[in-house]
């Protein structure tokens, strides 16, 4: 179960959210002109993506991926977002949305409802993808420990 009030879960939901939705919520939060400082300008950069191989569960570097991080302080609450790809506006909006929820802004219930809808959509999409591909799954046997 994904919890939009949990910051780690919220990061994932913001990254999966559409840029237009993030911009709409950011505009709603900024409508009253609260104090906002941008601590990290949104700039695309490459970061190393690390994954865990499935046999021995060892981490390895898959390769570099393009992301756009941004960080803000909104009315005393800090917000951060890192979105895949080159998405400066959406990253800044995501950081504002994160700060709004962290600071319990009056728009928080609407933001949380939208993030829960994103979580439901992501879960349904994964369920459909698994239903389509589960019949093609291959069960491998490894020779680990065999002589």
Describe this structure in words.
With 147 residues, this protein is of the alpha+beta class. The chain has a single domain, classed as Double Stranded RNA Binding Domain, CATH 3.30.160. Helix content is 43%, strand content 25%. It contains 4 helices and 4 strands, in the order ααββββαα. It has helices at 7-16, 19-30, 88-102, 108-133, and strands at residues 36-40, 45-52, 59-74, 77-84. Strands 1, 2, 3 and 4 form a 4-stranded antiparallel beta sheet that branches. A hairpin with a 6-residue loop joins strand 2 and strand 3 (59-74). Helix 1 crosses helix 4 and helix 2 (19-30) crosses helix 3 (88-102). The termini are far apart.
What string gives the helices and strands in order? HHEEEEHH
Can you name the CATH architecture?
2-Layer Sandwich
Q: Report how far the terminal alpha carbons are from each other.
A: 43 Å
User: Level of helix content?
Assistant: 40-55%
Rg estimate, integer Å: 19 Å
Most strands sheet: 4 strands, antiparallel
Strand content: 25-35%
Write down the overall geometry: elongated
Text of the CATH class? Alpha Beta
Instruction: Give the domain tally.
Output: 1
Show unreliable segments. Answer: none
- Quote the average pLDDT: 94
SS-based structural class? alpha+beta
Helix count? 4
